[in-house]
Amino acid sequence: MAVIRKPISAQPTPHRDVVTDLDALRRRLATAGLSNIPMNINAVAEFMGLEVVEEIMDDDLSGYLEYRQGAWVAGVNALHHKNRRRFTIAHEIAHYVLHRDRAASFHDRTFARRATSTDVMEREADQFAANLLMPEASVRQAIKAGATSVAALAEAFGVSALAMKYRVQSLGYQVA
Length: 176
Fold this sequence. Notes:
By secondary structure, the chain is an alpha+beta fold.
């Protein structure tokens, strides 16, 4: 059984095809009031004109992005934790923004199983998703304000502890 979340408006945003990088997306999201933390990633997908579909998938699959009948569809594994699904949607948004001109579909394995992958597009999509959901300035601000546990930061940003651990380490923080 699949759960489908249709866009709030049938009208596509006039800017969705112009966004080709994270900075441009952030500017559009700020203008639309969609840059709050934790980010409403489903609203961001809708803003981008993506249809999000939750489906039961094999455990080692996180999701996919496919071009179907003139529209992009992001599929997400309905069996995964909500924070994992949020990261997957952000990852599929990344494929849409960065790679949609290179392929008509992307099928993504779980993060842990692709961590050693040499696939450049997958690494780019993971980095984009992490930066989208956990902006550097916001993470640093939260730490400066006293949120020093990975669990507290993960909860504040609506991501898994593993994703937050990787993010704070990528920003130069040590995790004990």
